[in-house]
Amino acid sequence: MKIGMRKPSLKRRISVRTSIKKQVVHRVGLKMPRGYGWVRNPKKYGYNKVYQRTTFITLKF
């Protein structure tokens, strides 16, 4: 896991916005309220929680 400074990736940002999986989940109505990530995928939630607390961003788009 990375610790310290991170640089945002424009390529990843675009790919997330155009993801087929995310569009399908959104249109079907399987959305969960903000903060319920631990219900859907606890392992990913834990990783992201630690990652966000141990790194910081250099630039904002």
Q: Could you say which overall geometry the principal axes of the C-alpha atoms support?
A: flat
Number of domain modules:
1
Residues in helices, as a percent range: 55-70%
Overall mean confidence score, pLDDT? 83
Which stretches are low in confidence, meaning pLDDT under 50 for 5 or more residues running?
none
The computed structural class is mainly alpha
For the largest beta sheet, what order do the strands appear in spatially?
Answer: 1-2
Strand content: 5-15%
Radius of gyration in whole Å, from Cα?
14 Å
What is the H-and-E element order? EHHHHE
Overview of this structure, please?
The chain has 61 residues and is mainly alpha-helical. It has one domain (4-57). It contains four helices and two strands; from the N terminus they run βααααβ. It has helices spanning 10-17, 20-28, 37-40, 42-54, and strands at residues 4-6, 55-57. The chain has a two-stranded parallel sheet. The chain is flat and about 40 Å long.
Quick structural summary:
The protein is mainly alpha-helical.
How does the SSE layout of this entry go?
Elements: E1 4-6, H1 10-17, H2 20-28, H3 37-40, H4 42-54, E2 55-57
Parallel strand pairs: 1-2
